[in-house]
């Protein structure tokens, strides 16, 4: 038996960077919301942060680049759906109120 097989695996550096990016993007979103809660451009900024976070998750944790092209396309469509829905709600909310 290989004696290295019993050793715990260290996290991959890309996962650590992805985790740091997600924490940073979450902090950025909270700071934007707290500092600019009345700004008209805030929904677009939040949608961008959400899209970036989804992209980081797909690439680092879901291994999007190794998926079949159809699955990759569906995943990208799913990631784009939430930011687009946020923008749509922001636009419709402004026109209704």
Write the layout of secondary structure elements.
Blueprint lengths: L12 H23 L6 H19 L8 H28 L1
Overall average pLDDT = 88
Report the sheet-strand fraction: under 5%
Q: What's the main sheet like?
A: none
Percent in helix: over 70%
Topology, number of strands? 0
Separation of termini? 69 Å
Secondary structure category? mainly alpha
Taking pLDDT < 50 over at least 5 consecutive residues as the criterion, the unreliable ranges are: none
H/E topology pattern: HHH
Shape: flat
Integer tally of domains: 1
Put simply, the count of helices is: 3
Keywords: Membrane, Transmembrane, Transmembrane helix
Transmembrane segments: 16-36, 42-62, 74-93
Protein name: Cytochrome C oxidase subunit IV
Label this structure with key terms:
97 residues; 3 helices
Summarize the structure.
The protein has 97 residues and is mostly helical. The protein has helices at residues 13-35, 42-60, 69-96.
Describe the structure.
This protein is mainly alpha-helical and 97 residues long. The protein has one domain. It has three helices and no strands. The chain has helices at 13-35, 42-60, 69-96. α2 runs antiparallel to α3 (69-96). The protein is flat and about 65 Å long. The protein starts with 12 loop residues before the first helix and ends with a helix.
């Amino acid at each position: 038996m290989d004696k290295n097989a019993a050793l715990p695996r260290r996290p991959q550096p890309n996962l650590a960077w992805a985790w740091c990016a997600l924490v940073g993007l979450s902090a950025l979103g909270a700071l934007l919301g707290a500092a600019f809660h009345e700004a008209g451009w805030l929904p677009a900024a939040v949608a961008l942060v959400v899209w970036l976070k989804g992209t980081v998750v797909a690439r680092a944790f879901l291994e999007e680049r190794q998926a079949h092209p159809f699955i990759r396309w569906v995943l990208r469509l799913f990631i784009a759906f939430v930011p687009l829905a946020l923008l749509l709600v922001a636009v419709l909310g402004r026109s209704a109120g």
